[in-house]
């Protein structure tokens, strides 16, 4: 490290940023427990010197490391959940200094460190779990925004604190990043959420959804349409648009991913900080490790900062224990020595050589086993050749079968299989399977060779993303059925490795193949007379040929017989193998009806159909049983929780004033030697403190219940938007928000049904 120091307090993971709070020098900002923020750098003390009007308290804190810059502490008064820095507004008209964006469970603060003043403070009932600063897509006239992710919601604030952007997403937001995903020169918003989805927003429209296998804990733009992601199960990978370039999985959890050109070749490397303190840098295209380091504790965050004021950004890594290390990028003429100096190249070479050695030893062992089998076969032929010849001369006709039988028995011990052997796969629905209906994956060979084992790799189907099937020797055959239980509507690629060989063999040939599981494979086709009629539906006009709708159904569902769109109206009935809910798809020349009682499923079907047919705009009408009652109950609960919150806040404020008065009264009694009143004052103070603790617990429970209700409401709005496409979707979401703000329940229900107010 070219720079190293230690902060005085521990650092909250993923709450690390850097900004030019004085307009000139980079300053590191890290969130600490107890609602504090540590500022390290030349611009940290500007606010303390200028006074200012903010209620936030800046005070110096001594640092043990020699030669380190002063560390200033900013007291927030509540736990910090997200941290970011940047300039808001248009660069030509906004001040030069960056603002510090601080998120908590109930508010979002933009703090001007230079002037020690609040730029704006906004209540955030949905909470703040992630913040990113930048220009979003075609948002003209507003410049850079503070984009805040919370409880199923996204909000964009300008420099004055006006929410100029708002949208909803499927679950709690866990990470945000800005990336030129479409390659149009503007930024799209990448949103990772707790429902395992990465959604790409162009302004307030979702242009891409990528399903992962765990909570998306971190996102990072790399270069152009490339971005990196990290999951809560230890997976790190890189996408270029919707194509995954590579991924790796570790037993540790990635805390931060960051793009930095460490070897000065003009292409950034992916820097990953792990929960065990490991740091590694990987080639963005291949995932090959080019640098690594180790911290004694978990990494808290990774940023790039110019601490020396020479124009060179240093790769700066902060651990949860407060250790800060900064690394210089390697000069171009020393780039080739990067692997040697870190030991990565030698370790990789040793690992590669050991792997090659193991493969060669295994290959040699296979040759030896085959040679032994061939030698045994020749000896058996030699021992039986003379008697067989004698029997043939004597006119016996049964010897040929004996020779053939012995030859076959000997060949069974070898691993050779016919050269034309192939492995074929098929998918079908098995409603009679026990203990539950399933999708049956059949793997079969084209001859009598046996399948000894099958390894299936699939995301979101199995625990651990893989499944191994190896039947007992008594049940070996040329085919093998594997039950699949998909739980989500997502297209999945099944990667199979099949071990094939003769019966009784100890060595096998490995066949690799891939099969795609359709997006709605969890729905099994049923006869119209056996299907229930859903009460809910989505209806829309569709100016498309029925043949194209039939092609979409054939591509997204598992059907025993493909649907033909040439014979008049389409009427397809399905039932979910996971939940038993009914689904009906009906279409004729100019309209289509999706019958389901599940609003979320209806949105997924509309989104999939619009994407397949290339429909930019799609309006619809919808009706779902019980939706009006659910909305009324939800809005009433939210109003009740908000009233309770205000009442509890007022009671706690009154109690805080009483505490102040009792402390003064107790001190006066102590000075006067009036120990009777002193004891009484402290007794009242104890009782009041108990009441305050009880009120705080009630307020925390109220806040949790309010957050859950707001999440449910935001999810309904998001699902209502997914029933449409393009500008009709945007209009529905915006109108729903306006109706919620106006507490107009009737208008909200009408918008969900018809798409507009």
Q: What is the count of helical runs?
A: 10
Q: In percent terms, what proportion of residues is strand?
A: 25-35%
Percent range of helical residues: 25-40%
* Structural class computed from helices and strand pairing: alpha+beta
Mean of all residue-level pLDDT scores: 86
Report low-confidence residues grouped into runs of 5 or more.
60-68, 393-413
Rounded to an integer in angstroms, the radius of gyration calculated over CA atoms is 33 Å
- Could you give the order of strands across the largest sheet? 37-39-40-41-38-42
Question: How many angstroms does the end-to-end distance come to?
Answer: 60 Å
Number of strands: 42
Gross morphology is globular
Largest sheet: 6 strands, antiparallel
Descriptive account of the structure:
With 757 residues, the protein is α+β, with helices and mostly antiparallel strands. Among the domains are: 423-517, Immunoglobulin-like, CATH 2.60.40; 523-623, TATA-Binding Protein, CATH 3.30.310.200; 627-754, no CATH class. It has a six-stranded antiparallel sheet. It is globular. It starts with a strand and ends with a helix. One of its GO terms (cellular component) is ciliary basal body. Keywords: Cell projection, Cilium, Cytoplasm, Cytoskeleton. Residues 377-399 are annotated as: Disordered. Residues 524-612 form the BBS2 platform domain. Residues 727-753 form the BBS2 C-terminal helix bundle domain.
